[in-house]
Specification:
The protein has 137 residues and is of the alpha+beta class. It contains four helices and five strands. Strands 1-2-3-5-4 form a five-stranded mixed β-sheet. This is DUF4174 domain-containing protein.
Length: 137
């Protein structure tokens, strides 16, 4: 009997999750930041499926998640040349940002991760934007 309720709970929870428009969109369709108590799984299959619905504009960095140690920003850099991307990634690395590309992400998408003890979300976003502008000029 316990297993029956467990299976029923898992089916109900799973169905409810999949029916949402996106975990990164609010009721009115605006992009919102997901707050995670422990650790955000930025490369999980569910997350990758959900970020395809976000579609950041060229050069836009969207603060999509915050967990107990980091802020996660998403961007689409597909419009950059390979040299510009490499320059941008090097600037991110030199400025203590972590970045993830490929790993199942949509083509051109990049996760940029700022550690909470080094940046505020606003400061991280401003620095990332400045590094991006320096990379394309």
């Amino acid at each position: 009997m316990k297993h029956y309720f467990l299976i029923l709970f898992l089916v109900a929870f799973g169905t409810g999750f999949s029916q949402n428009k996106s975990i990164f969109h609010s009721e009115n369709g605006r992009i919102r930041t997901l707050i995670v108590e422990n650790y955000f799984k930025s490369l999980s299959a569910e997350t990758i499926e959900e970020i395809q619905k976000v579609k950041p504009a060229n050069g836009e960095f969207v603060h999509l998640a915050t967990d107990k140690k980091q802020y996660y920003f998403l961007s689409d850099v597909a419009q950059l040349t390979e040299a510009q991307k490499n320059n941008f990634y090097q600037k991110l690395f030199d400025n203590k940002f972590i970045f993830q590309v490929n790993h199942g992400l949509p083509n051109g998408y990049v996760w940029i991760i700022a550690e909470k003890d080094k940046f505020s979300p606003q400061d991280g976003l401003q620095r990332i934007t400045n590094l991006y502008q320096q990379s394309i000029n």
